[in-house]
Design goal:
59% of the residues lie in helices and 12% in strands. It has 135 residues and is an alpha+beta fold.
Length: 135
């Protein structure tokens, strides 16, 4: 009987873990499927990292952390910081962190805010702190 209760407890924890982060989990699943179908996914350590051809990172729950295989430890730790943000914020992660972070990255690629560090933006500096990254 002990095995049943342990299994049920683990299922219960994972169910609510995914439910708490459902919007980003669904986006992460969509991105993973898209990358898999288009050949942009080069490997995966489920629950650790999904390796893709892009040079940038993307964190959508601990199940979907997209990084380049050649990324630095700092980049991986930074993305793990975003995972912690997702756990803390739940359904608020995408509007509070995800969307502003993508807009910030896009503006930087357009050459705006070139004088400021990418990691000075609140979404990125908080991810660095949570991931234990010193810059």
């Amino acid at each position: 009987m002990k095995g049943f209760f342990e299994t049920f407890f683990i299922f219960f924890i994972y169910f609510f873990y995914i439910l708490w982060q459902l919007p980003q989990f669904m986006v992460g699943l969509f991105v993973w499927i898209f990358c898999k179908l288009t050949g942009r996914l080069t490997g995966s350590d489920f629950g650790t990292a999904c390796y893709w051809t892009s040079r940038s990172g993307l964190s959508l729950t601990s199940f979907f952390v997209f990084v380049n295989e050649m990324c630095s430890d700092k980049t991986f730790m930074h993305e793990r910081g975003h995972v912690k943000q997702s756990i803390y914020l739940g359904w608020l992660y995408l509007p509070v962190i995800g969307v502003p972070s993508i807009i910030w990255a896009g503006l930087r690629r357009l050459g705006l805010f070139a004088g400021r560090s990418y990691y000075s933006f609140y979404t990125e500096s908080w991810a660095d702190r949570l991931g234990g990254v010193k810059r």
